[in-house]
Write a structure and sequence with these properties.
Blueprint (H helix, E strand, L loop, with lengths): L5 H8 L4 E5 L8 E2 L5 E2 L3 E4 L3 H6 L5 E2 H23 L8 H20 L7 H17 L7 H8 L13 H33 L9 H38 L3 H37 L4
Antiparallel strand pairs: 1-4, 1-5, 2-3
Helix pairs in contact: 3-5, 4-5, 5-9, 7-8, 7-9, 8-9
Length: 289
């Protein structure tokens, strides 16, 4: 797994384990892989280089992102189910305390921010917050540990923080966007939602084109800002951890500890921001003027 240069080391740590389809070139010539093997017909396989991953195109899968996302989701469900089935009215365990504090925190957040009536919002907010928090916490694992284990198992690339992959953050934000549209049409109706777009912020028929342009743009920006805010903060932090790993060992400890302590604040903050904005957007979708 060791790279020859710092640039190769950084690129290696920022490349996902990608599974996709390699196929011959458009002119009919076979595709030549990095190890010299030839692809004469469309083949689904793991990418061995960043260029192969790029050549696989849009339909390639980031297996590490999907795997760790699902694993953190299962961990969330398992921990909360375990705490719920063993809850006691007496002296609670540490896990039960943690679950109750998290539940009450999200419940208070939804009560303060969400002004509609929908039993789905609180469970959704709890799921988003804890799931993103668990995915972000993976950033605190030393950057070389898991990739080294994966390399020993024959995997060339392996990233472990799903929120440093825009595919994951955009996937979550797109899900929120679909919920915004669904509840906007459900609560306000097609006519009410269209009228809201057409007559805000300027309530005059002559300004309808301007209003539509502004409101549709604002609507589209919501999922983009959600995804990029989470991805940008997590990705930047990951890059700094990787850069620190390039330094001598004694310098690494000097810089890694304060940077990790700082990220103990950043990790829950980014999960909180994503959750709050989701609840705010869904609250606006439930407002019927």
């Amino acid at each position: 797994m060791a790279a020859d240069t710092p640039v190769e080391y950084i690129k290696h740590h920022l490349t996902n384990l990608t599974y996709g389809k390699l196929q011959p070139l458009e002119n009919g010539e076979p595709y030549v892989r990095a190890d010299g093997s030839i692809v004469e017909e469309a083949t689904w396989t793991f990418a061995r280089t960043a260029q192969e991953a790029a050549d696989m195109g849009f339909m390639a899968f980031h297996v590490d992102t999907l795997g760790w996302s699902i694993a953190m989701g299962v961990l969330f469900l398992g921990l909360f189910r375990y705490a719920a089935t063993r809850a006691t009215a007496g002296i609670p365990s540490g896990l039960q305390n943690l679950v109750e504090i998290t539940f009450e925190f999200i419940q208070g957040l939804v009560r303060d921010v969400f002004h509609g009536k929908n039993p789905l919002i609180a469970p959704l907010a709890l799921t988003i917050f804890v799931w993103i928090l668990l995915m972000n916490v993976l950033k605190l694992i030393p950057v070389d540990f898991i990739p080294s284990v994966a390399h020993a198992m024959g995997l060339e690339y392996f990233k472990i923080v799903p929120t440093t992959d825009p595919n994951a953050t955009f996937g979550m934000s797109f899900g929120v966007f679909l919920l915004i549209l669904f509840y906007s049409f459900k609560v306000k109706g097609v006519g009410g939602f269209t009228k809201e777009l057409a007559f805000n912020p300027f309530n005059h028929w002559s300004m309808v084109p301007v209003n539509l342009m502004l409101e549709i743009l604002a609507l589209i920006i919501k999922p983009i800002s959600l995804a990029l805010r989470l991805f940008g903060n997590m990705y930047a932090g990951e890059v700094v951890f990787i850069l620190i790993a390039l330094l001598p060992l004694w310098v690494q400890w000097t810089l890694n500890v304060p940077w990790a302590i700082f990220h103990i604040l950043v990790i829950p903050l980014q999960a909180f921001i994503f959750t709050v904005l989701t609840v705010v957007y869904l609250s606006a979708a439930h407002e019927d003027h």
